[in-house]
Batch of 3 targets.
Target 1
Amino acid sequence: MTSPGTNRLAMGRFAPFAVLAFFALLPFWMTDQYFLHVLIITGIFIIAAISLNLLLGYTGQLSLGHVAFFGIGSYASALMSIGFDLNVFGWMLVVTPKPVWFCILCGIFVAGLAGWLIGKVSFKIRGAYFVIVTISFAEVMRLVALNWIDLTEGPMALNNIPPLTLWLPFAGETTFWSKVPNYFLVLSIAAICFEIVRRIVVSRVGRAVIALRENEPLAMSVGIDVTRYLLIITVISAAMAGAAGGLYSHYVRIIDPDVFLFIFTVTMVIMVVVGGKGTLWGPIVGGLLFGIMPEALREFAAPEVQWIIYGVAMIIVLIFLPQGIVPAVGSWLQSRRHGSEPPATPEPPGAKGAADPS
Amino acid sequence: MDQLLQHALNATILGGTYALLGIGLTMIFGIMKIVNFTHGELYTFGAYMMFFFVMVLGTNFFLGLVMAIALGLLLGALIELALLRPLRDADIDTTMLVMIGAWIALQNTQQFTWTGIAKSINTPFPLDPLVIGSVSVSWSRVFVFVVAIMMIIGTHMLIHHTRLGKAMRATFQDRDTAALMGVKINRIYTATFALGSGLAAAAGALLAPIFVVYPTMGDAVAAKSFAIVILGGLGNFWGAAIGGFILAFAEEFGAGYISSGYRDAMGFILIILILIFRPTGLFAQRERIG
Amino acid sequence: MNRWSKLATVLIGAASLIAGSAAAEDTVRIGVNQPLTGAVAASGNYVTDGARIAADLINASGGILGKPVELIIEDNKSNPKDAVAAAEKLIVKDEVPVMMGAWSSTYTLAVMPKLMEYGVPMVVETSSSGKITVSGNPWVFRISPTSEMEAIAFGQKLGQFKIEKANFLVVNNDWGRGAADEFTAMLKGNGIDVGVIETMDAKATDLSAQIASIKAAGGDTLFVTTGVEQLTLALRQFKEQRLDAQVITTGGSSSPDQLIEQAGAAAEDSLHILFFAPWFPEKAPHPEIAQGFVKEWNDRGLNFAGLTEGFRGFDGIMTIKAAIESANSLEPKAIRDALWGVQVQGINGDISFIKQGPEGQESGQNQPNIYLVTIKDGKVASAE
């Protein structure tokens, strides 16, 4: 399972800043609004993929219900911003519309809470059972969103979700109607999530769960409280996915129960797996690839043909590059630089990912 | 009372195909330790093959059914040879992800081939239903039920009364020992996957004339198959058969007396409840978790 | 310097090259937002076929304002989210000045905020929910009838039928629920009992539980509102479970020929409210237009069953053509203003818009005709 990662490249430290600077400058020369739209949606999915990577890549838990947290975050945030009345066992709960930044925080909180609940229930089980229970959870959420019409409008979708309004220096009260401010918003949240994951991975909790991924019985025997650490990571990962969901609903401004579709989990999984699970840059590379490719292919291939390509790409990567693109490119560069094989001795588990060269 | 009886009859008929689907999936898991995400696509494939033979080529209905099942077996064998054999020693997560890739590729290939417009298939059965007292059921559903039960019994016989079945059971109990005893594991795996796929294709081909055929029809079915298999315990043959009927009854009565909108939720709610309270399934014998 | 930024530059460069090829000004671009795949794909494809016939007819007679018409067709995949994505793409990338869409009420309602945001008018060809024209969106012009109009028009013909107690089986969205509400109100206003209103998911195939409940409720008439695919299943399953109520379909999307072909004897005696009856084009208000359309449809080898949907696309594009010509401009706002004054001879009848909704923010609504047909001995017959 280990990848031949290394941080012997000095530029590795500056790479995040270079990439961030590149994307921050992009709207100044890229005037195509539609392409910015594509990048915003891609960015939102990259945030979701980063959060999934935390669970899938670092703890090794194949959670295939990740879209549940994304959907819960987007519904919670959208509902808070529109306002709703709810009859809870005779009590009328009336929520008036709240400022959008507050709603997104609520979405993050509710998604984190859902992560805690699901973690509590499902970490008793492993392997195939864990996978199926996570999928079931997402599907139940979809069916609830579809049928609880008083709250969610069901298949009629939640319409007219307000965009974010923030007080910004120099600009004052700004409502994020157009593409450029939304682009910067998504970019900053993505950068924050990237940094959170980077710090978690080198922290005590991070090292513990990575040890767990490598060898669960051993990790338990040295006294790692498996379930508790997994739970912490799940809550963080779910909250991050909830943030992506909140950004999504206030940017797209319409959500329907299809935000819970399994295919969105699969999209995130493809991004993580093809990019390189358990690496910091994997979800970003995979996300950019699969976020922009549909647009690049749009003129040449029908949507179903694109999906055939993604499915096949995923199979090929898993069979021939099981670690994904980022570790493969890393070790290729490594071997070219040193003119030799990649290091034969495996890295200490904790150093992996954090020490990824790119 | 009439409504109750009608719901019970509907559920029994539906349970036959659910059992068929569950058995196909549970065999593959039990013997190969693979969570088969292409199960729903094999179901869809069976349905489209039925459409192709009966409506496009004009083949006899029953011959079309046999052909659709045979092609399902063949496609299953191909998937096993092309995708699973190279991954024989990979961990369960990698195989699962590969099967998800195969699911996407297969579903969209069917969408590309047949377009997104739903198709329907004519049946040779009379439209007037079979009436028993106050309840009624269509002849085509009776046919589906009878064939499904026959196939379940046939599969059971195959597993318990043939050399192939004996080898399968040996592999199920202990792959390494079975290999030492001279069982050709690769051959058993291909046969198992083909058989499981054939059962899914059979369910698709049987139900296609009752419902309509469209590219994503397999998704809900795959999800239900997972529920059935979890109910019965992964790898448990009769558990899956009974699980199929339990799910059918839960759905039919849930839809009839609670809310038809939550019909499809029943399976997932059952999964979550079972996994909280009895993680090895209702009829667990010797399953390992993980 | 950084290899990832290099990779990103290459990728973005390639993609922007493609994205940059928008808006050549030598054609009149009209956006079409229809469900071409998914649950209601059959109907969406028929509407699109009708729109193509209109565009070819216009181009054969010199185009609009001397330029050929180009339809930019986007698939909304039978869900509201993709309907919005399609509208966004049509407006932002293809820069269409006017659109037609988006079949289902749910998709149309989802798209409507985008019309406000970008200021682009849309002609609504199928959707029937009352909400569409009363929500204060001045960019919406609907040529199809609302469920309320349909219910009232049906109410005037109520004397022909003996209805004592009716039940409903409707698809669970704005269209189905809207129809159930309006028809319930109309029936109750006429002193008729309403039993149960059962809903079904647009993708549901097994309706046995709903049917058992409807049977238990009793009643002599069942109103059904859904797309033709699900209607086929519903009719077959009514027969299987011996539900012997008079079936009446609403919404005009029932394609009786397709029902005869796919549901066979189960479609017998069902009654359908339609907005075009292609079996008797000579009875249409403008027979020569209706007959010409039916002939062209058949000449193209299209499925006759699709005509009851296809005409909507034709009427929609013809309405847009009239508006652009009278505006003499390709500015969205000018086209919007011109839509208020159009007088189009369409297949359904005369198309013109009256104002609905809050003052100053009115939406346009046409007053279309309805037809009743029934299926007798495997053939469509007029029920009037």
Target 2
Amino acid sequence: MASLPKIPEYKAEWAEGEAGRWGIAIDMDLCTGCQACVAACSMENNVPFVGEHDAGYGRQMAWIRVERLWEGEYPEVKATPFQPVMCQQCGAAPCEAVCPVFATVHSQAEQINLQVYNRCVGTRYCANNCPYVARVFNWADYSNYPEPLANQFNPDVTVRRRGVMEKCTFCIQRIHKATDQAKAEGREVRDGEVQPACAQACPADAIVFGRLDDPESKVSKLSKDKRAIKLLEDLGTQPRVTYLKGGYHGNLG
Amino acid sequence: MTDKLSRRDFLKVVGAGAATAAVLTGCGPASRYVTREPYTKMPEYNYNGQSTYFATTCRECAAGCGLIVRTMQGRAIKTEGNPYHPVNLGKTCARGQATLQGLYNPDRLRNPVRNSRGESYQTGEKDWTEINWDTAIEVVAQALKDPAGVQFLLGPAPDHLFDLVREICKTIGAPAPIRFGALGMFEARVTLGEAARAMFGRPDTLFFDLANADLVISFGANFLETWISPVAYTRGYSKMRKQRTRGILVQLEARLSQTAAKADLWHPIKPGSEGLVAAALGKLYAEQKFGIAPAAFEAVDVAAAAEAAGLQLEALENLTALLLDADRPLVIPGGAALAHEHGLEIAKAILALNALLGNLGKPGGVFHTPVSPLGEEYRRPASLREMAELVERMKAGKIKTLFVHGVNPVFELPQALGFQAALEKVPTLISFATFPDETAMLADYILPDHHGLESWGYQRVTDGTGQAMLSGAQPVVAPFYNTKSTVDVLLAAAGLPFKDEVEYLQNQVAPLVEQTGGFYSAADLPSFWALFQQFGGWWKNDVSLSAPNAAGATEKKLNLKAVEASEQHEEFHLLVYPSPILAEAGANKPWLQEIPDPMTTVMWNSWIEINPHTAEELGLHNDDVVRVVSPFGAVEVSVYKYPAIRPDVVAIPFGQGHTAYGRYAEARGINPADLFGPNFNEAGDLAFADLKVRIEKTGKKRELSRLESKLGVYGEGMEEH
Amino acid sequence: MQRVFELLKKKEIQLLLLIAFMVILSGGAWALYQTQIPPEQPIQFPHDIHVQLQIQCLYCHPGAQRQASAGLPTQQKCWACHGQLRKYWDPAAPVPLEQWPVELQKLAGYVERNEPIPWVPVYIVPDHVHFNHRPHIAAGFACEQCHGDMSKQKVAELQQTINMGWCITCHQQNSVNDPQKRIKLIDCGTCHY
């Protein structure tokens, strides 16, 4: 009998050396901030809307947001490049360590962070510990839409209830579907065959998804680009999302 | 508290028992009495529990992107781009993604109704009586019997309904149908078309080959937001950046728009100075390259132009250097740049600059888009002056029956045009609206059309692609309500020899079967029709963009007016831009409402953008409600201190401020079109960018919901923490 | 707080609490029981007869082989056979509908009214679980390993308690020799998303 995988004693032990399995590369030079990814993600993953009042409290539920910041003062003012931020699916995720009920666990198979809705009791420790503010909490049963709006729900994704934390899953339902199909056809998943909703919608092709452990895939080539940066990398979180900063011209002004 | 257990408490306890059971069994009992109802007769393409995908055309704006809609068990659950469709190549924008929230909108009109126009007409209250479709068709048929008094007002897309209505109007002798959309108004499309006619002899919209340009100077063209065909131009932008030498984008406009945020260089030039800047650039470029400036640019005083634009002379020289450096430079005119009194001259100046740069008909340059494969010449939507003429005809009582489809004139037209007041002189208003919009609420009859995802059709796509094409639409779900396709209604009412809409469409696309060079070909009409549905349209494989006729383009003298130098300090230029997320018709989709505006991150409301320094001078803070007063109207709206806007300009997005249109849109924000006056440019487009407004304090405060934190921005809000 | 303790000392309050506890407990037990009995079906479909006639499971539930849900046959499929069973429908001597077996009369009724049959699912998982038939069939499992011997059941009955323990036990047993497979089979994200 072959030995079973050793259960790591502390985070850094197993996190070390993992290339990661799935990853995203986002070219910030191409991202136009059009929010198509936000809409696509919400439609695919049954992300509810919360209304003006709750949105003002910062309870907006989107799993991906497009950030921009201001630099300088008029007339030398600049908006920083648009930066879509979703769960970075950290190799060593700060959120996982703090969940008292193991609702936030690391998927060894897909090497992403999971949120197990049925285990979640809503302590919100994970969201507090997430340096990317990638997690959102169901403060109410937002999915109780007036009829017939609920018809749009995607049957492949759980509709979450009040008191449950949620976040980007890299569209794991699409990953499963593609791997399942590939397995049935007796092959590996091809590069580009599976795309999360955000990457599929992106009109500027700024979001690229694929296998990080395949050196030939588009995403692993991009994540080794000289423009590649990772968000808050010095925290040691091993994010699986790579950002390609700036263009080649620098500042013309 | 009594010691006895009341009956109510007892029920509570029993309820708790059931709840416990739910927890113990993992929600088991809750789903126990769900039933699964299989099809009685399975559609042959379907498989129980597996998705079926249908190709259709997006109807959220007139760009005509192709969609693939995922359906499951007869419900549409996700839209994606059609990867073969030449306009969007598999991509979508946020509005296309949210189209399902229109289909499933709880406030859709479900039955044909008659609205008795009594007192309710004034108050906007509903006094609706349901009618049946036979009555409805009879009403339409009666109206068509008086052809001189009939007027059709349609949406901006050149689709099969437009063809049918045009045919009907021609047959019965009614005035030709008018197409209109607010986005066309904000893009000043007619001005661009008229300038193209004046310079190149053809009044088409032009195609700007962003993808192959290495320097793009855009005069406020918001092509990454709503301009003409945003998904196509975003793809072009992406390609431009990915070239071996990365293309440069320069944006010249008073406010840093979402598009300007992507520019390498942004100059906040004064509204109205665009033509002068273009001419000055032309003069500098020509003098340095050829030693002599052509007639078009000769007269311009470069230093004065820089002064008028609020630029340093050095900045113009730098731009000229960039132009001289570039191999494939391109200049794009935006909507707000042309929406001035002398907008046509500005458009000509910009096109002349392109001619001077020698990019007409070359990669990375300006082209005429191909004519649609159904062999029609280009027919543009109405300009605002033509809409004003329509209103005049209404006021004169010449229109007995006004049919409205796919457009919401009560909301989209400037209030000063008086469309709503003129409606009182129109005896019968028949609306084919899918949603209870402002115009439908005032209609005598509402005969709701299917939602775009429930209906058949085709649309000519003349923008955003170089391939001649016809985009096809088909129902992806069966209609949910007692709605009826407007084409079917008109076919029945006009007594045309077609059985239904599909037969009409097949008859229309029949000439395409003969055409060669298509994406597919078929031997006969039925197989062609099947492929037409399968691929979501028909298009030619080859790009057939044609070069504009450049002869003499730079030799015509331009009549550019100087910008007024002196201004009253209290007056601000008002820049109204279509909201990148809501555009003209997105306000009734809750997810679009909740998507933060890309630049301000405001959700669910309207705001006015004011430069922080100006706000300080006026003593205004974020979320303060101000009264914006123009000579034609006034609105009250919350302040957003916008760091990247000229101090003498304020901006309000267009898209909110509905008084009807369903629960998610109603009574939310303000409509800046209320501030516009009936001022037109030479081409007949609304000169909305000339408008000046006053800002008055109200002392009120209304908090805007924003995604970004308000804490610490300009040091505000910190005192409470 | 003091008042509550005093109240708790009273006999009748204790009795009431006991009754309340019993009611909750029995309510829970009743609901649990409800999940474990075959539900009332619109038609008492006899699986056994069909299996004895050697009709393959996948003939009526073909989805099991290629997708998540096994699927229910359309009544068109039912009627494809039943509509021409000579026993009842001999053109020479047709048996009137009233003399058909009761359950077949019901089927005929649904077909006539063109109404879907409202079947009640027997093997159910909660909404937050995504069960997929295909990999199980692909891995070589026979239907009866989970659904029992259908030749001995009339309407489908639950053959096991469907809970996560049951899933995981089987997943573990089937990945004893393959650590890679085990990682996949006991991963939360395999079923919960």
Target 3
Amino acid sequence: MIHLFSHSLPLSVKYLFWGASFFLLLFFFLPLLVVLGVSLASRGLYGGVEWIATLDNYRRLADPLMGIIFFRSLIFASLATIVCAVIGFPLAYMVARASPRWQLLLLTLVMIPFWTNFLVRTYAWILLLRADGLVNAFLIWFGIQSEPLSLLFTDFAVALGLIYGYLPFMVLPLIVAIERISPHLEEAAYDLYASVGAMFRHVVLPLSKPGFVAGGVLVFIPSLGAFITPYLLGGGQKMMIGTLIQQEFLVSRDWPFGSALSFALMGTALILWFLVSRTSFGKSLP
Amino acid sequence: MRALPKPLVLAGFMTMLFLYVPVIILIGLSFNASAMGVTWKGFSIQWYEKLLADPSIMDATINSLIIAVLSTFFSLLLGLGLAIGMEKWRKGHASWMNILILLPLVIPEILMGVALLMVFVFLQVPLGFGSIVIGHMVFNLPLTVVILRARLRKFDPIWEDAARDLGASSWNVLTHITVPMLRPAIVGAALLSFTVSLDDFVVTFFVAGPGSTTLPLKVFSMIKTGLTPEVNALSAIMVVVSMACVGLSWLFQSQAYSFSIKHDSSS
């Protein structure tokens, strides 16, 4: 222990350090091991866990029905990530290159949705999308549609909810990345007769890559495991991995299979995180 | 510098509108006198009055506040130890810890929820206030550590060395140099932890027990059992509270920023 810290620390800080490490070990790493352990166990007769080792839960993942739900989740998460990147970039660029006075205001405006309750922000879309909701009222009022469309509980609603919910997670890392690009590089490109499009294509977009990578991870991983959005806007019919896990744990009470699903989800998330932390972005992390 | 390209600014404003229109409509509808649908039947605060008269809302609010205060306090205490300890670690040890400490922030929330549920059941920890506080600390602690470390790495160890050279004990260095310099980050981390805890739904959903309903759980059950305009009023209040918290946190962070500029120019 003497060799672990390079300076002398008060004893109280050392206790807190080890206390915090123990806390994370007990309530973060142990739970993940428990998920792995239970995923290899069998389901008890009345929904409990029986400690008989089996790979059955993983075999059940190969079920075509599971395949469809995993595939759907991957597609939704990818779609949300791509759309967030496309619509998030102009906003991020605008904030990053705004004059200092505007920047503080714009940045605060971007921060507010980031910290506003996710459940409430998802609920807002129920008000907009339901049959007597605002979008339908709008469409009928303008004569575009004579009958209300059923927009809620569709794939469209789930995708929209994911994009809306996780957009701030894309915009904030992009702002940080764009701010790090020297405006002189943009000037230099223009001086060398680059068009606006060429400047973005060859200067800003390639240099914003760390922001796209960080934002991509922050949108993709939670979208993949999303529970609130598919539950409230998909209405239970449009299942994703998150709603399936919830159902296995709280409705079917099949913990071992639910754990196998969770472990597959974590595996996907961790592989992605590992790949990303090996890139140049990973080395600039705090 | 030349002006920003017009189409880009337009697209940026469109995205900003997309972020705000649903929330603004939500707040607007919470003042609608009509109980059904979106037709405007005049301004009314009756849903807010109904909300305040509902004792279960008050209970859920108090539960949420107690849980947020406790999880913020303990995350801050443990986070200070972890952040300062990691900073004083010999070079080389810290790099793997950097990745590990971020893991709770990148793992899907639902996974944390079910994993904690199973651990609590197996360890026979009763589901309720305690389990929710622990569940919130699992993400608040790493969040606190990340914010504190960002600040710690900015300041010059020369201040601590100077105090030590003048005979200060390690405890005095901590209380007179390190913690005061960390204060803006401590306040910022506390406000963010508090907001995150107040807002959490997924982890809470899995580890809550009877009698420990928090505000987001209450909103969820209200949405599920049928849409009443009271949900709009409750949601609107939660949006406004989040705005206030972000505003406050922002104020402290910008103070921290101006402090570091003054500090850099004087050294």
